[in-house]
């Protein structure tokens, strides 16, 4: 079963983060979709995510994780040093999310925003969810 990352497709920081993950996810563990896409909206509704969710979301094994928990669970699957960041999962979520929320609140100001969702290159297009994606992904 795939692990799915939903991200803010118009956020430059978020799109760059997806590219960062892809480069370090040598086993193609993750599939990607933007929160603004039809499939992203469908997945949000299927998992009862709050309507206003605009942070990174990791979906795996029928559960979803957001904000710092999603970021740390993703880092655990990456090649190299990044997997060791998972040790910060011991920090209470409210404290971790304080830092996450500060970055998220300022991401457009610091990194900019696109007019439309990122378009994956042909080399990585298969890593992105298609609108007709199988309903059994969760």
From TrEMBL:
One of its GO terms (molecular function) is protein-disulfide reductase activity. InterPro entries: DCC1-like, DCC_oxidoreductase. Pfam families: DCC1-like. This is Thiol-disulfide oxidoreductase. It comes from Oceanobacillus zhaokaii.
């Amino acid at each position: 079963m795939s692990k799915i990352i939903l991200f803010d497709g118009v956020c430059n920081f978020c799109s760059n983060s997806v590219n960062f993950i892809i480069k370090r996810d040598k086993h193609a563990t993750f599939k990607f979709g933007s929160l603004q896409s039809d499939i992203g909206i469908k997945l949000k509704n299927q998992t009862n995510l709050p309507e206003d969710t605009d942070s990174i979301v990791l979906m795996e094994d029928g559960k979803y994780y957001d904000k710092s928990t999603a970021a740390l669970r993703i880092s655990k699957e990456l090649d190299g040093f990044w997997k060791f960041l998972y040790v910060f999962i011991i920090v209470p979520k409210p404290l971790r999310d304080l830092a996450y929320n500060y970055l998220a609140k300022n991401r457009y100001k610091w990194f900019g925003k696109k007019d439309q969702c990122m378009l994956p290159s042909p080399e990585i297009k298969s890593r992105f969810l298609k609108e007709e994606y199988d309903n059994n992904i969760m």
